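so i finally got all the pieces together for this one. its two components total, 1230 residues if u count the protein bits. some of the lines might not be protein, just check the labels. i wanna see the whole assembly predicted at once instead of chain by chain like last time, that was a mess tbh
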Amino acid sequence: MPEIKITPLGAGQDVGRSCILLSMGGKNIMLDCGMHMGYNDERRFPDFSYIVPEGPITSQIDCVIISHFHLDHCGALPYMSEMVGYTGPIYMTHPTKAIAPILLEDMRKVAVERKGESNFFTSQMIKDCIKKVTAVTLHQSVMVDNELEIKAYYAGHVLGAAMFWIRVGSQSVVYTGDYNMTPDRHLGAAWIDKCRPDLLITESTYATTIRDSKRCRERDFLKKVHECVEKGGKVLIPVFALGRAQELCILLETYWERMNLKCPVYFALGLTEKANNYYKMFITWTNQKIRKTFVQRNMFDFKHIKPFDKSFIDNPGAMVVFATPGMLHAGLSLNIFKKWAPYEQNMVIMPGFCVQGTVGHKILNGAKKVELENRQVVEVKMAVEYMSFSAHADAKGIMQLIQYCEPKNVLLVHGEAQKMEFLKDKIEKEFKISCFMPANGETCTINTPTKIPIDVSLRLLKAEAVRYNAQPPDPKRRRVVNGILCVRDNRLSLIDIDEMCDEIGINRHVIRFTSTVRFEDPGPSVKTAEKLKTLLAEKLEGWTITISEANISVESVLIKVEGEDDSTKNIYVSWTNQDEDLGSYILGLLQSMVQ
Amino acid sequence: MKLYCLSSDAAKPCFVLSFKELMIMLDCGLSAHSVLNFLPLPPVPSTRLASLPNYTPPHLNDPLLEGELKECCGRVFVDSIPEFCPPLDKVVDFSQLDVILISNYTCMMALPFITEDTGFKGQVYATEPTLQIGRFYLEELAEWVAGAGGAAGAARRWKELLHVLPPPLALAARPRAWRRLFAPASIARALARVRVVGYDERVDIYGALDATAVSSGFCLGSANWVLRSAHEKVAYVSGSSTLTTHPRPINQAALRGADLLVLAALTQTPAHNPDHMLGDLCVHATVTLRAGGSVLCPVYPSGVLYDLLECLSAHLDGAGLAHVPLYVVSPVADSSLAYSNILAEWVSVGKQARVYLPEEPFPHAALARGGRLKHARSLHDDALGDFRQPCVVFAGHPSLRFGAAVHLVELWASNPAHAIIFTEPDFPYADALAPFQPLNMKAFHCPIDTSLNYSQANKLVRELRPRELALPEQYAGAPGAAPRPCISADVPTVLLRRGAARRLGPRRALTRATLSGALAASLAPRELRAGLRAAPLAAALRVRDSRVSLDEPPRRAAPRLELGAPDVDALVRELAREGVGDARVERGPDGCIVHLPRHDTLLHVERHATHVFCEGGADLRQALRRAIAACLPSV
């Protein structure tokens, strides 16, 4: 039995540092190459020494596939390609290729310049790494080599996020990366066709949640912002440059327009503005509504949202500011937070997950005093709100995807172990397929049925089709084809015996046996034949028996009744050498009947 | 495999390929040459056109013909809504089509004629830019033809009297098959049927074939189609370009080694080099503008227009004419210009690199932001409120029979300072200008057709090495006639003319199936001769979505099959070894009879068959079987 082996180096019963090794049909594929945001030591990157303890890694990996630009999916790529020394092919979609280097550079700056880390990749390494990337488009079938084929599907989640279908020979796997099964303000829903892979590797961030209606959460968010600015408060929304920021901007923009609000909305200069430009260029990757209306009005040309300048921090009066980074661990968002935190009328809204150790994580846990790096202590009097807008599929969405693509096995990654257990049970019960959830470093082996390609002679198939179609329709009837299997240079073909004889220049030799049974049965021979048929039908259930006048045929065995009326009948039973079993059985049957 | 040709215009092809019980239409081009026989439809009423004299053929008094024909400078035009020449509908029943594959947006304009009100039930596949830009072309055409008012009824009588009319009207090809343009509603319905595909996406066609669109380098989203099954490969090359312009370059590797190569839509102006023409155009425009005249380019709303905007604006900047405004007038101008800038995945590498910065791939977005380039839905659009001359106007339609260009030619025709520059290759420019004669404005012909020319196409065919080639007859050299550029390849070539059907391509003998591992493991192939091993196989056959799989049969394994002819003496020896020793052999003309009197049994041994009349018991029969098996090879 051919096998598929999967070893998560990251994201096995865990969120962050997605990196999954897949081997099938002699090919090794790395799915995502992410970093862990919660660690500052070597645990940050996947353990590449697992692949080869020493020596070059390139010969061990046939290709690397990156699903989307989030750092927990691509953060370790420059490390792998420039520092570990991987030189093989890397695949990602066009938007991912455009945006990933910006996020990598941003992260590098925070890590090296603010935290002073060494042994980190440089700006040049990011550029060199991205140069090696092959960009793919949706549904394009890319042949990595003669046997390995990959194809991207739309995944929603963030701009350019893709699911990948991977095939080697007759085995296939779908890796979802992160995906979203409900369309949001700017992206469409993930979609895949019924590709029936042997294995579906799916994320399971929200394995147990069925999220409340998105509309409610949006209304909540807008209400809170509106109330705060009405009272003259300032609202800080720490975001990451791409993804949620655009969705929230669209949300506020349309709300401001509808309610005719005058209070200024800003976003931090730099990243986000550039990011909006990427959204404008890659508008084909957004949802249908934005694509349809972009000629009249590009959704990412915001009228109410203006660039932010540092001097605005101390401006009096209400305002809403989007600032990076999203976890309040450094940069502009932290600066603004320091200034605004001590005032009750202000508010901070955290729209996403925060890693342990960050200021964002602390205030979400209710800390009223936060100590910063330089021992400065900030008193937090402002309102702190948490709203999850993160675009992952919930349990319902995951089940929906399984229904869409009909996999034979499912493997869960990118989620918490406990929640995975729950989902695993549900999948196994509902779809009656096996479900796996290996931990990091644990290898999971999946057996797949063998399917061997074979060339079948059309003459053979057509002859079978003629026979089959001549019979009354019965969808349950088995169709059987008889021929000769030929093996040449390890290539298989199934051909008609006559075709083979023609080819090798030898004739077929048919051997036929005929035996006679004498039967005292007065009356016309047709009558006798009918009697025999009734008897045979009793004994030979499930065989096709036909009768025409005094000739009976049981599939390929012929029985002929001869003789004058009112005298002894000769029953001839005739069969070819190939039907010896059936023929001798029928002969025996008739002989015993006669006695 | 059979190929039908339904179009007489090689640049607007329409073929139907029947293969594996499928009917596959390749492109559905709409030939618009017929509109040149009609009077222009001015968007603003024109007194000159309205006052053209009626034409009546000499010695003919037919009241039905009254008012159908007008004369302008010695040429006769039909005064009616223009009609188009759709693909032939008598050869193939459109309701039987399974699939339509579209190569690019210039070759899909007849789609509503094929899919609407014909009982068509199949699928239509095209790339996303092809669908979108094709939509622009169709909507623009429909708006212009409909927008000019349907006041003039359909003239029909002249079609009956072709023989008495002067040329070129008398030479019109089968005008009775010409049709009025479709309604906007049927355009929307036809386009709603299109399924979008990406380059290199394998589209499964009812399980029988894979169809793949591969880049052809001609325009945004233009594709050549590769049809592939496990044993056959057909490549359809239509509208390809090996030049470097704005679209993704041609993918030749995917077309290599096809069993059949169908070649269509080569350049329509083989004598003109597109690069030189672009240079000429810039020079003519500069000279005209310097002299205070304006320039009109009758163009389609997409395609070469993007290159013209890019090159001309840069050239004018260099010539100190950066203040000259550029206008694009089309009902779809805004959409077309905006849309081109979001097709990052469909443009050349150079343009793609700009997107990564991120900047728009085409410079016209920047020109529009700077106020240099203005686009308007029509000539009376508010966007043209500050219309300044001299200027450069890009407006359709290139045939000069409808659209904003008609009005501009009427307006500027008398002024020799102005110039009209023809860039689209679809129409002969002298014919296009005929109803506007006498003309004082300058007219230049700078056709820019980036499709393959004949030497490029010949080189391509040599490199692709197809086993067979199919072409519209126009592309073949005519023996005896004056030598002209043609396609000549050293592979079997089939020529097609409108209405023709030819049987071609490989004869199918094998099809691909899958064999289950369990069944394969139960077989023990024997060596028949060096390099060939064989075993009899009985398998349960499953055909699902045209895919064949072979599984373990419900009953018994396949028995061995005997081959060759037995040597009778050897048979007798084998029988003796089995203890059946009293064989008497009678030799006859067709074989022998081996008589076993003791067992009441006869063996008729012939060349291809042995018939055993056995009245003995099962033991005897088994002994006979062993004896025969011992002197016959088997598989």
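The longest helix of chain A spans residues 94-114.
The radius of gyration of chain A is 35 Å.
anyway lmk what u think
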